[in-house]
């Protein structure tokens, strides 16, 4: 009796990309950052086909120019990124929308389907100056959730993009408690989550558990790892996020946490199309550092089946 032939595994529905962040880019213009042309050349050379826009103004903001520059390198855009402070209430809506609209318009024009929304920092990410209380009041939570829902609906209606909210170190949405509270209080039809594995681990969260618990809310992934030894020192000293990155708190996979293989397996088990964008925070870094890391990281992710 012959044994049935093993069935081939279905192709992965996870689309891998990278971002300017993995090249040390945090600002539209900074002499310590690589020129945008070099970023595009190297991200393509490392084997990626998807990118994010990064800070608005780093890549060309003329859609025709950007489409030409990405297409000739075999690249496509998955998302734009915005920072918001919607917990401050309706008074900040008009200013927020102006910022969101220019980013969303560019993302739409170059074929992206998502807009990554990052809450504003409660302390300055360079100096550590405390800008506001690290814990929101009940009223601020209500403003945050209601206005984020409004943002999600208006971005979808006007630009056809899905917003994905990104928990981030030194913001009011970071670890398990605040992420669960945010998801439980928002409409799944309006708001999805961008799970950044590094930032979630930075705040003590378990990415696999989050995917298994809130799988239907996961709309996007950022792949990142934390060096646990550096993180322990950062936490003990109360170091803000920017200086923590300069210390190397975000590290090259697979040397940190969380392990990405089980995260990718849990995400694949959802059975949906997902972008998984590599983001290794490295600002500032020497210009020759990112490309070899990008090559190794892409090779590692292929070994994970994506």
UniProtKB/TrEMBL annotation:
Entry EC number(s): 4.2.1.44
Annotated keywords: Lyase
Pfam families for this protein: AP_endonuc_2 (PF01261)
Gene3D superfamilies: Divalent-metal-dependent TIM barrel enzymes (3.20.20.150)
GO terms for MF: myo-inosose-2 dehydratase activity
Enzyme class: lyase
Domain of life assignment: Bacteria
Annotated ranges, domain Xylose isomerase-like TIM barrel: 41-279
Matching InterPro entries: IolE/XylAMocC-like, Xyl_isomerase-like_sf, Xyl_isomerase-like_TIM-brl
Protein's recorded name: Inosose dehydratase
Source organism of this protein record: Streptomyces nymphaeiformis
């Amino acid at each position: 009796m012959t044994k049935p032939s093993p069935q081939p595994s279905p192709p992965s529905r996870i689309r891998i990309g990278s971002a300017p962040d993995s090249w040390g880019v945090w600002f539209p213009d900074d002499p310590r950052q690589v020129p945008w042309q070099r970023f595009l050349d190297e991200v393509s050379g490392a084997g990626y086909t998807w990118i994010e826009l990064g800070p608005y103004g780093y890549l060309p903001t003329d859609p025709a120019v950007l489409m030409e520059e990405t297409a000739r390198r075999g690249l496509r855009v998955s998302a734009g990124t915005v920072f918001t402070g919607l917990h401050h209430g309706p008074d900040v809506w008009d200013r927020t929308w102006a910022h969101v609209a220019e980013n969303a318009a560019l993302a739409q024009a170059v074929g992206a389907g998502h807009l990554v929304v990052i809450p504003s920092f409660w302390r300055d990410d360079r100096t550590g100056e405390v800008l506001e209380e690290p814990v929101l009041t009940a009223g601020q939570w209500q403003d945050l959730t209601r206005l984020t829902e409004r943002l999600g609906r208006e971005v979808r209606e006007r630009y056809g993009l899905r917003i994905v909210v990104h928990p981030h170190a030194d913001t009011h949405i970071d670890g398990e408690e605040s992420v669960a509270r945010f998801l439980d209080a928002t409409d799944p039809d309006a708001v999805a989550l961008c799970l950044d594995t590094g930032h979630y681990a930075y705040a003590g969260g378990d990415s696999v558990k989050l995917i298994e618990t809130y799988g239907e809310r996961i709309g996007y992934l950022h792949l990142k790892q934390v060096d646990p030894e550096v993180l322990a020192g950062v936490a003990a000293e109360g170091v803000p996020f920017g200086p923590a990155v300069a210390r190397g708190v975000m590290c090259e996979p697979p040397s940190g946490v969380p392990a990405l293989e089980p995260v990718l397996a849990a995400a694949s088990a959802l059975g949906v199309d997902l972008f998984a964008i590599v983001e290794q925070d490295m600002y500032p870094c020497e210009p020759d550092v990112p490309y070899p890391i990008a090559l190794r990281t892409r090779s590692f992710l292929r070994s994970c089946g994506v």
